[in-house]
Write a structure and sequence with these properties.
The chain has 369 residues and is of the alpha/beta class. The protein is built from 15 helices and 15 strands.
C-alpha cells in the first residue's frame, strides 16, 4: 500500500489489454473500484500495439506499457524467441509493480495478463483472475492454479475454484433505462417508437452473412410491420431494394457510436455471440437471434447457450441463416407482443448487471487481506 499524506492507499494493477474483449471488462472493474473506493490507486498495463494506448488513457487511467508477448500457435522462430521476450516483459512488469507498490494484480487473460501474473507470483503479490469466455485461454489457465480468487462469466467454465460473477460491463449499458429512452432513441435513428424493431449488427466490422440475410428479408419484415435498424459495418454495403408498402422503415448505418440508443430503440437483435455482446444484451433485457461466428473453437455458441436455454434468445448456425430463417423465426416473435415480452423477461433474468461491483469488492478484499 502507498502512503499518501499519512494514510494508506490501496494500489491495484489491472492487466487486461490487447483486445476490446479484454479491455472493456478491465475498465468496467476499474470504474467500479473508483466508484466504490475513491481512494484506490489504479494502474493499467498494456502494450503499444492494438487498442490499449487509445482506449485506456481515454477513460482516464494511468497506462504503463510492457512488451507484447504474442503466443505462437505453431513451431516457428517466434516460439524460440518466446522465453527471452517473456523474461523481458516479466522484468518490466515487476519494475512497475514495485514502483506503484501493488497490493493486488487483477488479470483478464491475454498476452498482457500473462507476464503480469508471473511478475506478481515472483513478487508474492496477490492475484485475482477474471475469465470472460467459457473456454479459458492459456494465461488464465496457468494463473488460476495460484490465484487467490478465480472469477468467471459463465457456469461450467473449467477453472479450479471458479466462482461465477458474470461479465463486468460499463454502467452506461447496465444502467440503461430502455423504456425511458425508447422515443428519443427511435427519433435519433429515424424510427417509429411504436413499431416492433429489429436491430441487426455484426459487430464493429459488420458480418456479410447477417447483412445478406437481413437485407433479403426486408420485404417480409416490412409486410409484417417490423422496422429495421441495420448497422452494416464501415466497409460493407447493404442493398435493400424495394420493401413494399408496409410503411416500416429499413435504416442502414455503417456504424453507431451510441449503442445505448441502438439498444433502447430495439426489441430484438440479429447478431454474433461474442462474450461481451451476450452479457450486455442479457443485462439490459434484450432478446436476440444469435449467429455464432463460424470459425474458431465454438466459443461463441457456448457464450449464447445460457441465455438461449433460459428462453431469452434464439440460436442459429451461420450456415443456416437465411432470409427465410428470419421470416420463419424472427418475424413471429416480433409480431407477437406476448411472445416478445416473455423472451425479453427471460433475457433479463439471465443477466448479471452487478458483475463489475461484485468484482471490485472481491479485489479489495484480497488487496486488504
Amino acid at each position: 500500500m502507498l502512503a499518501i499524506d499519512g494514510g494508506l492507499m490501496t494500489s491495484v494493477v489491472l492487466a487486461g489489454g490487447g483486445s476490446a474483449g479484454h479491455i472493456e471488462p478491465t475498465l468496467a472493474v476499474g470504474d467500479a473500484l473508483r466508484r466504490l473506493y475513491p481512494d484506490v490507486r489504479l494502474t493499467a498495463l498494456g502494450t503499444a500495439r492494438g487498442l490499449d494506448s487509445t482506449l485506456i488513457p481515454a477513460r482516464g487511467y494511468d497506462l504503463e506499457l510492457i512488451p507484447p508477448i504474442p503466443m505462437p500457435r505453431k513451431p516457428t522462430l517466434d516460439l524460440a524467441r518466446l522465453p527471452v521476450r517473456l523474461a523481458r516483459a516479466v522484468r518490466r512488469t515487476r519494475e512497475i509493480l514495485d514502483r506503484v507498490d501493488a497490493d493486488v494484480v487483477v488479470g483478464f487473460g491475454g498476452y498482457v495478463a500473462f507476464p503480469a501474473y508471473l511478475a506478481a507470483r515472483l513478487r508474492k503479490t496477490p492475484i485475482v483472475v477474471h475469465e470472460q469466455n467459457p473456454l479459458p485461454g492459456l494465461a488464465n489457465r496457468v494463473a488460476a492454479r495460484f490465484a487467490q480468487v478465480v472469477a468467471v462469466t459463465t457456469e461450467g467454465t473449467p477453472l479450479p475454484r471458479a466462482q461465477v460473477v458474470g461479465m463486468p460491463l460499463r454502467r452506461s449499458i447496465t444502467g440503461l433505462d430502455r423504456s425511458a429512452l425508447r422515443s428519443p432513441a427511435a427519433a435519433h435513428f429515424g424510427l417509429d417508437p411504436e413499431r416492433p424493431t429489429l436491430l441487426v449488427t455484426g459487430g464493429s466490422q459488420g458480418a456479410r452473412s447477417l447483412n445478406a440475410a437481413a437485407a433479403g428479408a426486408a420485404a417480409a419484415l416490412n409486410e409484417a410491420g417490423v422496422q429495421v435498424l441495420h448497422i452494416s459495418g464501415p466497409k460493407n454495403t447493404v442493398e435493400v431494394g424495394s420493401v413494399g408498402g408496409g410503411g416500416a422503415a429499413y435504416v442502414v448505418v455503417p456504424y453507431a457510436d451510441r449503442m445505448d440508443l441502438a439498444y433502447a430503440a430495439a426489441d430484438l437483435l440479429l447478431c454474433r455471440a461474442g462474450a461481451v455482446t451476450c452479457a450486455e444484451l442479457a443485462a439490459v433485457g434484450l432478446p436476440a437471434a444469435y449467429v455464432p461466428l463460424p470459425i474458431g473453437n465454438g466459443e461463441q455458441r457456448l457464450n449464447a447457450q445460457p441465455v438461449v436455454r433460459a428462453g431469452g434468445g434464439l440460436l442459429v448456425d451461420d450456415a443456416d441463416l437465411s432470409p427465410q430463417w428470419i421470416v420463419d423465426n424472427v418475424v413471429p416473435v416480433l409480431s407477437d407482443p406476448q411472445a416478445l415480452a416473455r423472451m425479453t423477461a427471460n433475457a433479463k433474468a439471465a443477466g448479471r448487471p452487478d458483475a463489475d461491483e461484485v468484482m471490485a469488492r472481491l479485489v479489495l478484499e484480497v488487496a486488504r487481506a
